[in-house]
Design a protein that fits this description.
The chain is mainly alpha-helical and 215 residues long. The chain has one domain. It is built from eight helices and no strands. The chain has helices spanning 4-33, 52-82, 88-101, 111-132, 136-153, 163-166, 170-197, 209-212. The longest helix has 31 residues, at 52-82.
């Protein structure tokens, strides 16, 4: 019989794999969407005028403080609290809507790309928290995701050619295909995580009798 430590290690391994695959999928979604809608630019200011150490500390700080606070607030507290009244699936959806509109308010033409992206990211973190009963694996993925997007994806948003202007090139179609492939792999990884954790996938909408009675 597996020990509690080995069981947790297996859950953490599958959660991290599912999370990494889930980073690759939204990256493709984001790059594709930013070729339909011109985005305002990186969430961090232009750092080319600053010393490399300053820029590195800026990125490191942004990739650490935000994830720690958001993981604790949204998935460590909010989702757990909502699961007392609703099914896990409903709690994940509610938290994902709040996360998409809350700390990342979309403006103007950037409305739907940001809503889709942050909703999917939150759903990933919520599923990881539900299956592992911990925010630690999702915190690691959150930090890694922020680092990747801060350094490799968001800085190039304003320079990507719009499909309406220059048409669809080979890289556009590669990024269109990227989400499908990685989403499939991520779903398989989450399925394996559910088996290892011994948890049933989140059920449809349900309100507990206690909350329905206003208790």
């Amino acid at each position: 019989m597996a020990s509690a430590h080995s069981l947790w290690q297996r859950m953490a391994d599958w959660a991290l794999l599912a999370g990494l695959l889930s980073i690759a999928a939204p990256a493709g979604y984001w790059i594709t969407m930013t070729q339909f809608v011109r985005m305002p630019g990186n969430v961090l200011p232009d750092m080319t005028a600053y010393p490399w150490l300053t820029s590195a500390l800026w990125i490191a700080t942004g990739s650490l403080i935000g994830p720690v606070m958001e993981q604790a607030g949204f998935w460590g507290y909010g989702q757990v609290m909502l699961q007392e009244c609703f099914s896990p699936a409903t709690a994940i959806v509610i938290v994902s809507i709040l996360f998409a509109f809350g700390p990342h308010p979309p403006i103007g033409a950037a409305l739907w790309p940001k809503l889709v992206f942050y909703f999917l990211a939150s759903a990933t973190f919520g599923a990881m928290a539900f299956f592992t009963n911990s925010i630690l694996p999702s915190l690691v993925i959150h930090i890694a995701g922020d680092l990747i997007f801060f350094t490799a994806i968001w800085p190039h948003d304003t320079g990507r050619p719009l499909v309406a202007v220059s048409g669809a090139d080979v890289w556009f179609w590669i990024h269109v295909a990227q989400p499908g492939g990685f989403t499939f792999l991520a779903v398989r990884a989450f399925g394996q995580l559910a088996k290892v954790a011994g948890r049933v996938p989140p059920a449809p909408i349900r309100i507990s009798e206690r909350c329905a009675n206003g208790e």
